[in-house]
Amino acid sequence: MVKKIACVFISGTGSNLNNLIKKSREYNFPIKIKLVISNNIHAYGIKYAKLNSIKYLLINNTRNSEQRILRELKKNKISLIILAGYMKIISKNLINLFGKKIINIHPSLLPKFKGLNTFSRVLESNEVKTGCTVHFVTDKLDSGKIITQKFFYLKKNDNVAELKRKTHNLEYLAFPEAIIKLYRNT
Ligand code: GRF
């Protein structure tokens, strides 16, 4: 199988990045991760790029950053951008100039709880379930077409840490599943 070349954008822990790196080693998994971009020089997740000898780029959120990003995406023939805990909004300009697929994972059942502080808002709500969503990225925050969702039922004693743990565990299934779905018929 000819794998598509992907770039993962991170800002923090990078546990989804780590999971996707492991998955991408499988013969049948449709992508190879060739580049990691972090807009946070202290992001723990950079460690996974280093450990796996994946090229990484640290950007500093200045006006030139987008040009640098686009240059690297082109140079590395990236055909899929995966946002995995990337805490910056991708501009319309970048979306248009890249012109290929961009996907994101969000820790709620979109369209519910778009934006930040998802877990505390879920806890304050009357929802009976929550989960995660993998979706296409558009210039509207957390609003593109949904590719995959996974959910679990909320329990009485759930707290933010517990929701985060359970959601992450679902994300490790949802992201690979969504990526397989993207390329199923190619
Ligand atoms: C995930 O919960 C994801 O849904 C959100 O940011 C978190 C990233 O976690 N967008 P990690 O950096 O992959 O551990």
Structure description:
By secondary structure, this protein is of the alpha/beta class. A 7-stranded mixed beta sheet has the order 3-2-1-4-5-6-7, with helices on both faces. The radius of gyration is 16 Å and the shape is globular. Helix 1 (15-24) packs parallel to helix 6. The model has no long low-confidence stretch (mean pLDDT 96). It contains 6 helices and 7 strands. It binds 5-O-phosphono-beta-D-ribofuranosylamine (GRF). 5-O-phosphono-beta-D-ribofuranosylamine binds at residues 10, 12-16, 45, 84-85, 105-107, 132, 167-168, 171.
Comma- or semicolon-separated keywords:
186 residues; seven-stranded mixed beta sheet
Give unreliable regions as ranges: none
Q: Nearest-angstrom radius of gyration?
A: 16 Å
Strand line-up of the largest beta sheet: 3-2-1-4-5-6-7
Bound molecules: 5-O-phosphono-beta-D-ribofuranosylamine
| SSE string | EHEHEHEHEHEEH
The chain-level structural class is alpha/beta
If you average the pLDDT, what whole number results?
Answer: 96
What's the total helix number? 6
Query: How many DSSP-defined strands?
Result: 7
How do the strands and helices of this protein lay out in sequence?
Blueprint: E1 4-10, H1 15-24, E2 31-38, H2 46-51, E3 55-58, H3 65-75, E4 80-83, H4 92-98, E5 101-106, H5 118-124, E6 129-136, E7 146-153, H6 160-182
Parallel strand pairs: 1-2, 1-4, 2-3, 4-5
Antiparallel strand pairs: 5-6, 6-7
The protein binds 5-O-phosphono-beta-D-ribofuranosylamine (GRF).
Short description, anyone?
This protein is an alpha/beta fold and 186 residues long.
